[in-house]
Structure formats: structure tokens, C-alpha cells
Design brief:
DUF3576 domain-containing protein, single chain, four-stranded antiparallel β-sheet, 157 residues, Alpha-D-Glucose-1,6-Bisphosphate, Chain A, domain 4, alpha+beta
Length: 157
Amino acid sequence: MTTARAARLIIATTLCAGLAACGGGGNSNVEQYDADMSPETRGSTIWDLFQNSENPNYNVAVNKYLWNASLEVLNFLPVQAVDPFTGVITTGYGTPPGGGRSYRATIKISDPALDARSLKLSLQGAGGSAVAPGTVRAVEDAILTRARQLRLQDGRL
């Protein structure tokens, strides 16, 4: 017996044993099997891995008013990176009009709601220095106010 033939025999025997293990013990469990394995109950199968189940019309969960307001309020900062899918805007250092200190910001918009909880702002001064919490709060308030103004201008209440 050659090695290739022996390998085929082992594979065939393993497949037959696997198929035999799939057999039911009789018709007494048919009702139970049908009830437990309905598509609504079982969730997913191995074949679901091969289906393209992604929705091409998937909407990004970022509030457009907060996004645009963030870019407008912080327009004096050079934008380094934007990721609308995660809702993150990263800027470089810039000096506000009439200010003497430079800042950089990272903005995260985490929810489609026009709400203060949807906006996370991180400000950093030049050289990595900390920024007063009042300053961060004032910038957040300015972004939220501008976002509300943009929403009113849009006319979609």
C-alpha cells in the first residue's frame, strides 16, 4: 500500500466517522431539534462567515453639527488628522486670535446626538503643558453653542 493511498484511506475513514457522528438517534428528537435550531433561535451558522452581511448604507455615528462646529471654532489650529469613522480630529499647535499662548487639540465626537456627552475635548499647551479646566470648558461650550446654531440654520428640528 502506498503512502498516498494510505493517506486517502485515513481521510475517507475520518470523514465517514464524522458523518456518522452527525446522525440522529431517531425521530423522538426531531421536534426538539426544529424548535432549538430555528434561524431566530440559533443566531448564526458557520456559513454566515462567507456571506457579505455588511450594510453598504452604514451611517457613521458622528454628529455632523458637532463635527463642523469643532472645525469652525478651532479653525486657527492646523488640522493634522481627521477620522470621520471614529469621530476624531487631531490638530497641531496654533495660537488663537488675540492670544499669546499656543495650543493643540484632540476632539472626539462619540455619538450622533447633539449633546455635551457626545463631545470630548483635550487641549494641550506648548511644550506639553497643562491647560486650565476652565479654558477647556469654555472651548467645549463654544463648540456646543456653534453646533446648535448650525442646527438651527439647517432648519431640521
